[in-house]
Write a structure and sequence with these properties.
The protein is an alpha/beta fold. It has ten helices and ten strands. It holds the Pfam family Aminotran_1_2.
Length: 363
């Protein structure tokens, strides 16, 4: 055990610090060495040791009694930090942004991972390709066209929507963009991602029809929107506003960053298609499995305009290929269908319970 006095101050204070640290770290327990022996071991006077022991007795780290050995108090005595009590889990967790993690498809996902490990060529287990594994990129492109009405484009695999927005914003900065219009209110995390990439955020108010392109400040040539399900208002970008937004992008030669947030779960209206599907040359479409499977997977994508090249750090290859197999086998579709039924039933019960309050705008 290293207890040599060190640091600033008198030697007895230095030794007290070393002893205090050893007690806190759990290195020193039980009886401490007799003062005479420790002084001999350290090459210092016995007075240095007795003063250090006396200080720690006063602080509650040690307990000393005449005629018996000085000992470390359990848990460091009165000054030991107590572990804060954990709050009881809420009876009903209504926090946004997370799926019901109890329903994560453990068995199908484990089967997808086992299939990857059993059948993937060893050459695929090297460093991930910059844009993502070609198989997952192809499968995601097909899936987005089939389910979300997206147009063909360049699929970039990333660590989630925040990671994708960060990567695209960095590319925008490299192209000379300095400002990004965002919905107000909107996701704070994505605003911070844009700012972290070097862009200045310009809030634009949102109403029942979504964002109003006419209120985007002059000189701004990029905008971040959530047309399918605006957070936190729940509004959907109206057809008129969609046309105006695309017209704005063409007029200023700009780019629309479309976060396809929560598009999989709408119960108050029919699902709407992507803005990207109307003009793929002006829109980058972002998505992930964070709200459908789990944010712990760190799997997302960006469907970029064909002429765009963006650098990103792709997720681990095994996870990418597991998602590819899960989607291609139909497991992802089955999981989403079951999740929609569960969430719809819970949503309907909540709306019924809130009925007497006569709330409006419940999505």
């Amino acid at each position: 055990m290293l207890l040599a006095p060190a640091g600033p101050g008198p030697k007895h204070e230095q030794l007290a610090r070393a002893l205090r640290r050893a007690i806190r770290d759990g290195v020193l327990t039980g009886a401490v060495p007799p003062s005479r022996r420790l002084a001999a071991d350290l090459g210092c006077s016995r007075w240095v040791v007795t003063q250090a022991y006396a200080q720690l007795v006063a602080e509650g780290y040690l307990a000393g009694h005449t005629g018996s050995a000085t000992r470390v108090r359990p848990m460091g005595g009165a000054v030991a930090a107590k572990e804060p009590a954990r709050a009881a889990p809420p009876r009903y967790d209504l926090a946004p942004g997370l799926p019901d993690l109890r329903n994560f498809p453990r068995r199908p996902w484990a089967e997808a991972v086992r299939e990857v490990l059993a059948t993937t060529p060893h050459t695929d287990f090297g460093l991930p390709e910059p844009g993502g594994h070609p198989r997952l990129r192809r499968i995601l492109g097909d899936y987005l066209r089939r389910v979300r009405g997206a147009a063909p484009g360049t699929v970039l695999v990333c660590g989630g929507v925040t990671d994708g927005v960060t990567s695209v914003c960095r590319a925008l900065v490299e192209r000379g963009h300095t400002r990004l219009a965002v919905e107000d209110p909107g996701w704070t995390r994505l605003r911070r991602a844009a700012e972290g990439a070097g862009m200045t955020v310009e809030p634009v108010p949102v109403d029942d029809e979504g964002i109003d392109a006419g209120r985007i400040p002059a000189g701004v040539r990029a905008v971040l929107v959530t047309p399918a399900h605006q957070f936190p208002t729940g509004s959907v970008l109206s057809p008129r506003r969609r046309a105006e937004l695309l017209g704005w992008a063409r007029d200023v030669d700009g780019l629309i960053l479309e976060d396809d947030y929560d598009a999989e779960f709408r119960y108050d209206r029919r699902p709407v298609g992507t803005v990207q599907g109307t003009d793929p040359g002006r829109v980058a479409l972002f998505g992930s499995v964070s709200k459908t499977l789990s944010p712990a997977l760190g799997l997302g994508w960006v469907l970029l305009p064909p002429q765009w090249t963006v650098r990103a750090h792709p997720p681990p290859v095994v996870d990418q290929l597991a998602l590819a197999g899960f989607v291609e086998s139909g497991g992802y579709d089955r999981h989403l269908r079951a999740a929609r039924l569960r969430y719809r039933a819970r949503r309907d019960k909540l709306v019924a319970a809130l009925g007497p309050a006569r709330l409006s705008g419940v999505a």
